[in-house]
Structure formats: C-alpha cells, structure tokens
Design brief:
Elements: H1 20-30, E1 36-37, H2 52-61, H3 75-87, E2 98-101, H4 103-115, E3 121-126, H5 130-138, E4 142-149, E5 155-156, H6 158-163, E6 169-175, H7 187-200, E7 203-207, E8 231-237, E9 250-256, H8 262-274, H9 280-291, H10 296-300, H11 305-318, E10 323-324, E11 333-334, E12 337-338, H12 348-359, E13 361-362, E14 364-365, E15 377-380, H13 385-405
Length: 408
C-alpha cells in the first residue's frame, strides 16, 4: 500500500503536554525506569481524590445513565450551572445558553469549529494552554499570539493585543486563572480587554477552569460579568477544582450580546447534536459538585496541601542559580525562566529530553505552550513534598551540569 498520510489540517496542530518527550518517558518506564512526572495536571495520580459525595452520587445514578441525554445536557446540571453563573454575576444566562461537554476541551474545539472560516484569526495568549492554539488551527483559523508580560506578573499586554488585531480577527481567548503561569487577572485589566473586544466586535472566549484554585485569599472575577454588550463564551468544568479529570464533565456558557450571534449559536447547537450528548455519568456529578461542600478551599487555604506544595516548589526552584519564577496566584503550575546567559538553550525540547534521560524527571518545554523563546519550562507542583524536593534537586543537578558544559 501507499503510505497513508495524516490530514493536512493537522500540520499546525501540536499538544506537547502529551507529546514526543512523554513518549520517551513511557519507553523508559517500560524499560524499568521510575520517572518523576511534572508534566500534567492529572490530580488523581498524585493522591488528590474527587470528593466522596460526587463519587457516591455518580454510583447511585449509574442505573439511570445508560441512555442519551439532551444534546446540550441534562436539565438538573444545567440548572446548577445557571445558578453558578448567577453567583459569578454573569447576567442573562438561561438554560438554553448552557452546553455540557466531555470536559471543557471538547467544547473549546466545538466553539472554534462553529465559528471559524479559513483565514479567520483568533487572538490567543503566549504562553497559552496549547489546546486553544490547536483548536483554532484545526478549525481552519489562524492563531495569533499576544504576549503576556512576565515582568508584570504575566499580565496580557493590552498594547500588543491592539497591534495584532486585523480585519480578519474574530475573537480573543482569555485564560484566567492562567495555565501555564498561574497568573490571576485583576478587574481593571479584564475591563480593558472587554473594551478592546467591544471596539473591535470580538467574541471573548474565557477559559476559567481554575476559578476556585486560588491562593493567598485571592478572588476571581469572570470577565463575562463585566459587560452585556459583548458576546462571551465561558468555559469551566469539574476536572481541576473538583479533582475529577477522568469524569469529563465540563460546560460552556453563552452570555452577553447574543442577538447578533443567532447563526453562530445555531452552529453550536448543530455540533452539540452531532456528538449526540456528553457522557451521562459525568453530568450527574455536576449538581452535587457545585452545590456541595467546596473542599478545594481546604487544599488552597492556610495549611492546605496545594498551598504548601506551591510554596515549596517556588522556593526550591528559585534557589537554583539562574532560575527565576513569578509566584503563581492560582492553578497548579509554575513557568520558571532559565537565564539565557547562564543556560544558552537553543532547543528546549531537546533540553527536556536530556533532563529526562539524565535525571528521569519529566517536564514540558516552554515552547510547547507557544512561548516565544526556548528559555522557560512548565512544572506541576502536584507531587507530595518529598517527591517535589527530589524532583527539583534533580533539576538543579542537571542544570549545574548543563551550565558547566556550556560555560563560555
């Protein structure tokens, strides 16, 4: 047979969080090596269990979960999501404005597929959660990356956003709280983004999956709560705040100025119907999660495991010569910088390969998040304190050797 090629639509699609370096790590594990994984925010494997009441409600409802549901989702969980939007002060949301999906990831792709024609542009942050860039490309659009400024705590650069708007720009993606940097955006910055969207007739896609994973008493503001004359697509779910990644229970909320979006919404409805429905067992978890005890607060508050591990990882990393890191205010990640004068890295994927081969620690290189230079990497701080300490000590040892090998 002739070689069977992948679709040309995949030419600009990548997802390095589960990319080539991970494949090498799997191969090493098969050979008997023990890898410390700092590459993915999969909470369950680090001992962060889903709340018992969610698990029990899913079990109790399993006999009723065998059939298709409404293509947008069951009534009760959508009603609970509607109430949650009210808590977040997002006005005008009805049951019909809510779509439940197999995680927010499915809905990100759906939202872009329904919107984009060939050549349409979407503003995406750099660094970003790479599924956003991939979804734009896969949908026929062109991702245009606006810079988030490390010197200002990884805040989006409003002037850079303005410079990158063209007649083809259809939307802007806002990831807040941010993955991979852990930044949390203040209200005045969100208002500036809304104003840019308003003046340029852009849709705002708001990724808020970490909106409860906040440290040091910080609070989160949904950007969709700040205006009703702009169209907002807000995405959230159970994966992170409720440690339920595998349940694949996410949602998308359409709010704001919906009147001009009638045709787009019709497209969303069409795509929701084509995939028939989201998984029913996961839907049964949503109402219980949103209405129950918010155990995430115990993990991120004083004495909480996530808070302790954030502080430990930040100290250990920034104690390494030539490593700096903005301390995250939210989420599960850090995005440290390697001083290029000390660590002259040309290919950060190769750097990640070498770290894995020498020290058996798995990270994701910064360019995997569409960052503009090979001088960053992302780590998760989910492993327990002992494993974190061991992992960062191995990174420090590797960097010491790297610095010596590349000394001028």
């Amino acid at each position: 047979m002739r070689p069977i090629q992948k679709s040309k639509k995949l030419a600009d699609v990548c997802y390095d969080i589960r990319g080539p370096v991970l494949e090498k790590a799997k191969q090493m594990e098969e050979e008997g090596h023990k890898i410390i994984k700092l590459n993915i925010g999969n909470l369950a494997v680090f001992g962060f269990d889903a709340p018992d009441e969610i698990v029990q409600d899913m079990i109790l409802n399993m006999p009723s979960a065998a059939g298709y549901t409404d293509s947008k989702g069951m009534f009760a969980p959508r009603k609970a999501i509607m109430h949650y939007t009210q808590e977040k002060k997002i006005s005008g949301v009805t049951i019909d404005d809510i779509y439940i999906g197999n995680g927010a990831s499915e809905l990100i792709v759906m939202g872009m597929n329904a919107l984009l024609n060939s050549g349409d542009e979407v503003l995406v942050p750099a660094p970003d959660y790479p599924l956003w860039t991939a979804a734009v490309s896969l949908s026929g659009g062109r991702p245009v990356h606006y810079v988030c400024d490390e010197a200002s705590g990884w805040m989006p650069d409003i002037e850079d956003i303005k410079k990158k708007i063209t007649p083809n720009t259809r939307a802007i993606v806002v990831i807040n709280p941010n993955n991979p940097t852990g930044a949390l955006y203040p209200v005045d910055l969100l208002q500036q983004i809304v104003e840019v969207a308003r003046q340029n007739h852009l849709i705002v896609f708001a990724d808020e999956i970490y909106d409860k994973t906040l440290y040091d008493g910080e609070t989160h503001t949904s950007i969709a709560s700040l205006a009703d004359d702009v169209l907002f697509i807000t995405l959230n779910g159970l994966s992170k705040n409720y440690r339920s990644c595998g349940y694949r229970a996410g949602w998308m909320v359409v709010s704001g100025n919906k009147k001009p979006a009638k045709d787009y919404i019709e497209g969303l409805n069409m795509l929701a119907s084509m995939r028939l429905c989201a998984n029913a067992p996961g839907q049964y978890a949503i109402q219980t999660a949103l209405g129950g005890y918010q155990s995430i607060n115990d993990l991120v508050g004083p004495g909480g495991r996530l808070l302790k591990q954030r502080d430990l990882a930040h100290k250990l990393l920034t104690d390494i010569p030539g490593v700096s890191c903005v301390k995250p205010k939210s989420a599960l990640y850090m995005f440290p910088k390697l001083d290029p004068k000390i660590y002259p890295i040309q290919d950060d994927q190769q750097f990640a390969y070498e770290l894995l081969a020498e020290e058996k620690v798995l990270i994701v290189q910064g360019t995997g998040f569409n960052w503009i230079a090979p001088d960053h990497f992302r780590v998760v701080f989910l492993p327990n304190s002992d494993d974190l300490t061991e992992a960062v000590s191995r990174i420090a040892r590797f960097l010491d050797g790297y610095r010596r090998r590349h000394a001028v």
